[in-house]
Fold each of these.
Amino acid sequence: MKSGAHLAPGGGTSPYRFREPNYQSYRSPYGPQYKVGAHMGIMNRTSLQAWGTMGIGFGAVAGIFALFFFDGVPKVRKDILQKIPIIGDFYVHEVPPEDNPF
């Protein structure tokens, strides 16, 4: 027994001995042979896949929304939206010379 093992966590004495934390729980050779699956915190492979799929979906929708929300910004229109093959011609903005104040 280590010195101080008979003391309770609050500093007083305890009527029982504390167990050392290095023990293993008993596994019967006749019981089910289970294994703990791979996990990260509370997320296992199945829940991580479900949350990842949902996160990718929300991210894609948010990105598409941001592109079309900022389509009036000339830099976004010129650098991104005009380079999309099918709808790029829609975003070509040419001002007629008679409407140009400069």
Amino acid sequence: MAAAADGGVSRLASQRAVVIFGTSNCCMCHAVKTLFSELGVGWAVHELDKDPGGKDMEKALGRMVGRSPPVPAVFIGGKLVGPTDQVMALHLRGKLVPLLREAGALWL
């Protein structure tokens, strides 16, 4: 089941330029979504607490991110960027916008 969940996460993560795995009541997920919205980025979100396979995906994400809870887990261009602290660190270093452009999430 772990391999199927890992594959499900990878498949979902590659469907859009920016994909956020989170839960509906996660304040840090909201912060990441707000940042991307303010940057003009379109994103897809998969709320694990509303997905029938969410628990398995949460475990798979925990293995990928290396922490529990693993949300929000942000993928850009199909590649794991990490949780909120990693996304914010990239942004503060001026590396988030170029990464988003490279993934096709920003055009300007």
Amino acid sequence: MASAGYLQAAVLLLALQLLVLGAADAEQETGTVIPAESRPCVDCHAFEFMQRALQDLKKTAFNLDARTETLVLRAERRALCDCMPTNSLR
């Protein structure tokens, strides 16, 4: 007899959960839908983001190239000055 009471309680809880979940699904379906024509183009935004990222990378590469060139010239100048005698610079 006691197991029949547990079974009825379990069935009642299951029915209650189904009702709650059904109501939650109904609320989600009643939301407003934005038409595709008025939504922003996701691909366009991704493309613009990638363009900006590419410009930043180009700028960084140019700065690194200029910095590398400066460091190479400085190293060449040091090497040149180290191998020349001091009295020949006068």
Amino acid sequence: MATPRPVTPEAPFEPSQPPVIEGFSPSVYSTSESFKEKFLRKTRENPMVPIGCLGTAAALTYGLYCFHRGQSQRSQLMMRTRIAAQGFTVVAILMGLAASTLKSRP
């Protein structure tokens, strides 16, 4: 029977630091962006997504207001409008994804 080899001590695990993986950089951008900078960059890349989000929020808000006022037909119309705005937002996200994928190809 073979004798067990002594275990060599490795560097201690540091949970506050990301793991070092050879050939991998965790950040695509060399400088860190603030939330505002990232939001503005993403909005410039695909301006239809924020428009769709605002439309969705507006239809939801107005629909809830109409529901509270007892205008059930208008409330139902606004809920359907909200679904359409959500669909528009999803399509805008997919189109932006497809455009950025095609743009990054050589």
